[in-house]
């Protein structure tokens, strides 16, 4: 089998014009270069050089294979550069599985910020239902997943992403807009829009109302925060939702107020157990945390 090192020495002789010059260029002895050329000629069955009037001259056969050798070394150099960029976290690919709410808000903004400093990194962002996010991570179809609720128990490694609380979202001209904090009592006669009781967040919300001695009746139920916010805008509802949609400024005509008692929203990273994380994935996870913090305070 041909050795790249043998081809490298042949290429150096061609470029340097002599065995001695190639030896100096490669920091090897002249006999070592001569021996390597002889071995290479035997391996490929071609005479590579002739001596003409004391000068070493490439044979036509050697000139015919030179373009292929140059392409080979171009590829080798490209591999070395790519490896260096991967090592430095400048190149690679990242596969993320998450729910649509986070995909269109925090994740999208984090990708944009990350690409400013890592322009050669490619992304595959899958917006999926919660169950499918878990499946993607379990099946190694994603480098990691992100859920906007507490992660289900199981074999996956779970890491905190950010902390948030449900917000009370309404039109800017709503009578409750003058309040800094909204309590269950203030919502007695409002058309409420929120998540279903079959979701963890929806169940927590209803439990918080029961703890305050208030009944909870929602007129609009959806599993989508943007849908609930749209109902605020179009039907003058009051939505009790996570803060992520408003972080993206998709609803500039709506405002949010603090809800008391607080109902936590717990986004989490999901990782497959025992699977090492690439440098570029770790850097993007750090970017996601940074972006989430900036959006929450901005």
Automatic annotation (TrEMBL):
Transmembrane segments: none annotated. One of its GO terms (biological process) is positive regulation of gene expression. Keywords: DNA-binding, Transcription, Transcription regulation. It holds the Pfam family LysR_substrate. InterPro entries: LysR_HTH_N, LysR_subst-bd, WH-like_DNA-bd_sf, WH_DNA-bd_sf. It comes from Paraburkholderia steynii. This is LysR family transcriptional regulator. Residues 2-59 form the HTH lysR-type domain. It comes from the Bacteria. Belongs to the LysR transcriptional regulatory family. The keyword tRNA processing does not apply. GO terms for molecular function: DNA-binding transcription factor activity; sequence-specific DNA binding.
């Amino acid at each position: 089998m041909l050795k790249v090192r043998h081809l490298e020495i042949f290429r150096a002789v061609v470029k340097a014009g002599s065995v001695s010059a190639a030896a100096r260029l490669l920091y090897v002895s002249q006999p070592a270069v001569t021996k390597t050329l002889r071995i290479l000629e035997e391996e490929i069955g071609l005479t590579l050089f002739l001596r003409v009037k004391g000068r070493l001259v490439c044979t036509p056969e050697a000139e015919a294979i030179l373009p292929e050798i140059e392409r080979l070394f171009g590829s080798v150099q490209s591999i070395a550069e790519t490896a260096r960029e991967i090592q430095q976290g400048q190149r690679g690919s990242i596969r993320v599985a998450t729910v649509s709410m986070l995909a269109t808000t925090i994740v999208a903004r984090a990708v944009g910020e990350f690409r400013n400093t890592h322009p050669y990194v490619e992304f595959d962002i899958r917006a999926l239902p919660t169950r499918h996010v878990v499946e993607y991570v379990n099946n190694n179809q994603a480098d990691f997943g992100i859920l906007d609720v507490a992660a289900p128990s199981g074999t996956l490694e779970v890491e905190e992403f950010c902390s948030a609380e449900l917000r009370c979202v309404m039109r800017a001209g709503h009578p409750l807009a003058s309040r800094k904090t909204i309590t269950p009592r203030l919502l007695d006669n409002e058309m409420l829009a929120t998540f279903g009781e079959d979701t963890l967040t929806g169940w927590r919300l209803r439990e918080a109302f029961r703890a305050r001695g208030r009944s909870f009746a929602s007129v609009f139920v959806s599993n989508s925060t943007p849908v609930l916010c749209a109902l605020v805008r179009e039907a003058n509802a009051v939505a009790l939702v996570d803060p992520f949609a408003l972080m993206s400024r998709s609803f500039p005509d709506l405002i949010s107020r603090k809800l008391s008692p607080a109902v936590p929203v717990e986004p989490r990273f999901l990782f497959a157990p025992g699977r090492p994380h690439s440098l570029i994935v770790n850097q993007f996870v750090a970017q996601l945390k940074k972006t989430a913090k900036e959006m929450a305070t901005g």
